[in-house]
Specification:
- Helices cover about 65% and strands about 0% of the residues.
- It folds into three domains: about 100 residues, Four Helix Bundle (Hemerythrin (Met), subunit A), CATH 1.20.120.1810; about 45 residues; about 80 residues, Arc Repressor Mutant, subunit A (Orthogonal Bundle), CATH 1.10.10.
- The chain is mainly alpha-helical and about 280 residues long.
Length: about 280
């Protein structure tokens, strides 16, 4: 299917309750109706069929999103992200596999909601590795109380999730911490006054030694760049300068017209030039 799947969801402009009510009124599909619509989308690129598949499963997205209400994020935003996952699932759904769309879509819906939570739960991203992501969404289920884990609990969670005990401890510390404004105090009572980091962290950027070091490092990098560019042939130099060093960046098609080759050839020349320059600069 060459067309991009874009579905115009008629979301009510009122409250979240109005949206939930409207989604509940969309009729659910039978097995035969679902397979017919999915086949039309897959074989004919029928976006009307795609819209019907999405609309009939909005209530399921709402159900999944409600399971993530404990993260302090707006329910409407979680539902919106879940809807994105639903649309991705609809685009990839194959009716010939004899699986209902709801069973296939749940993984896509949760994946989008998970990504949204990880991006927005804290200012500083908590989970980047696969093990950390697994821990983030399972620690809350395993915590039986508000206090810190005992050693036995750490061992149990580590064994259940297949991660090192140190990773469990590290994620517990991250989740227990709070974001702090760099230059704000956030309290009006003098007895609870806690200075913000801006009040006690030193700014070393204006120190003469730091400035001299920065200038020397910049000059060193500029010399390396000039040397790496000088090792390229004339055409490759022009491509790199036009694509990366000019105020008005040239497109692949602009350079393709200039040299009478395809845009893909320009992309290959650019990639080869960048690889050669990287090798020269790190040598």
């Amino acid at each position: 299917m060459n067309k991009n799947l874009t579905v115009d969801l008629a979301v009510p402009t009122g409250s979240l309750e109005a949206y939930v009510s409207a989604a509940a009124q969309v009729p659910m599909l039978s097995v035969e109706e679902e397979r017919d619509l999915a086949a039309r989308l897959r074989d004919e690129g029928d976006l009307t069929a795609a819209r019907q598949l999405v609309m009939s499963h909005l209530r399921f997205v709402i159900h999944v999103a409600r399971g993530y209400s404990g993260y302090g994020l707006a329910q409407a935003d979680l539902i919106q992200e879940g809807n994105i996952g639903l649309m991705k699932a609809v685009k990839r759904f194959d009716p010939d596999h004899n699986v209902r769309l709801v069973s296939f879509a749940v993984h896509w819906i949760r994946a989008e909601i998970h990504e949204y939570i990880l991006r927005n739960w804290r200012v500083v991203k908590l989970a980047t590795t696969k093990a950390q992501r697994k821990l983030f969404f399972n620690l809350r289920k395993n915590k039986k109380r508000l206090g810190w884990f005992t050693q036995a609990e750490v061992e149990h969670v580590a064994k259940e999730l297949g991660v090192p005990e140190a990773t469990v401890r590290q994620m517990e510390e991250r989740m227990s911490g709070q974001d702090t404004a760099f230059d704000g105090y956030g309290v009006d009572d003098d007895s609870d006054f806690k200075p913000a980091p801006a009040g006690y962290l030193q700014d070393m950027s204006m120190e003469p030694a730091a400035q001299l070091e920065a200038e020397n490092w910049e000059a060193h990098n500029n010399d390396l760049l000039a040397g790496a560019l000088g090792d390229l042939d004339e055409r490759s130099q022009d491509i790199v300068k036009s694509r990366w060093l000019s105020e008005k960046k040239a497109t692949l098609h602009d350079l393709a017209d200039k040299y009478g080759v395809s845009a893909e050839r320009i992309r290959q020349l650019e990639a080869n030039a960048m690889k050669k320059m990287k090798g020269t600069m790190v040598a």
